[in-house]
Specification:
47% of the residues lie in helices and 14% in strands. It contains twelve helices and eight strands. It is α/β, with parallel strands linked by helices and 259 residues long.
């Protein structure tokens, strides 16, 4: 079970360092291997420094798709990878809603992240309005199809005989996080039937579209120690993407230990 802690725009480098120091003291080696911290980009070096030598994974919350250029205030995937990030969220609902990021724009980020060797975690999920209008699957389908479009097109090229030249299979590296927008930061967790249905559907979609069966699918949206055990038992729930509850060590470890 993976627990990825999305700190969003919280914690200073000093607080990040203290968090990691306490985490190393309190978590077992097995637990540490299941945690991925996603601090603000400017805390990455503090996390790396504090984690030095320990088997603790961390990543970034966002990146720009370009390698460099006139993009004031942005960070390239390559720089994040250079700072030790092994994962990068792409298309978190806050990026989609507050910063207007479209599927097409996010598809470029997925490729940029993959090219650095980091794992892109593509976040998808429907709004309450979309769910109530019966559009959940069509929203998820377009977020997946358009967001992963470049990888799927690369695969077609590979099938035409270039696979050996590139020496890689582009359809293995991506992770998905299903986060119904109405469950993020609201305290309103999706019910087991809703999570089972969405994860089952995403799993089948990925398999039908050439992604490996084992592509991890995380659930996110108001995950807490109190609801994690029930969700963790559901088929195709490979872990959690946790916001609020990842800011406190007690609740982060509580989620990990709830199963
Ligand atoms: P939450 O956030 O756990 O606070 O609902 C989840 C997320 O935004 O990834």
């Amino acid at each position: 079970m993976i627990v990825a802690g999305n700190w969003k725009m919280n914690k200073t480098p000093e607080e990040a360092k203290q968090f990691v120091a306490s985490l190393l003291e309190q978590a077992t080696a097995t637990e540490l291997r299941e945690i991925i911290l996603l601090p603000p980009a400017l805390c990455l070096s503090a996390v790396r420094e504090a984690a030095k030598g320990a088997k603790l994974s961390f990543g970034a919350q966002n990146c720009h798709f370009a390698k460099s250029g006139a993009f004031t205030g942005e960070n390239s995937a390559a720089v994040l990878a250079h700072m030790g990030a092994e994962y990068c969220l792409v298309g978190h609902s806050e990026r989609r809603q507050l910063f207007g990021e479209t599927n097409e724009f996010l598809a470029k980020k997925v490729v940029a992240v993959e090219e650095t060797g980091m794992v892109p975690i593509l976040c998808i999920g429907e709004t309450l309005q979309e769910r109530e209008a019966g559009k959940t699957k069509s929203v998820l389908e377009s977020q997946l199809r358009e967001g992963l479009n470049s990888l799927m097109m690369e695969d077609e090229v590979l099938e035409m005989g270039e696979k050996d030249d590139l020496g890689m299979d582009p359809l293995t590296g991506v992770w998905i996080a299903y986060e119904p927008v109405w469950a993020i930061g609201t305290g309103r967790v999706a019910g087991p039937d809703q999570v089972r249905e969405a994860h089952g559907w995403i799993h089948s979609w990925l398999a039908e579209n050439g992604f490996v069966e084992s592509t991890p699918i995380l659930y996110g949206g108001s995950v807490k120690p109190e609801n994690a055990a029930e969700l963790a038992k559901l088929p195709h729930v490979d872990g959690f993407l946790v916001g609020g509850a990842s800011l406190e060590l007690k609740s982060l470890l509580g989620i990990l230990r709830s199963k």
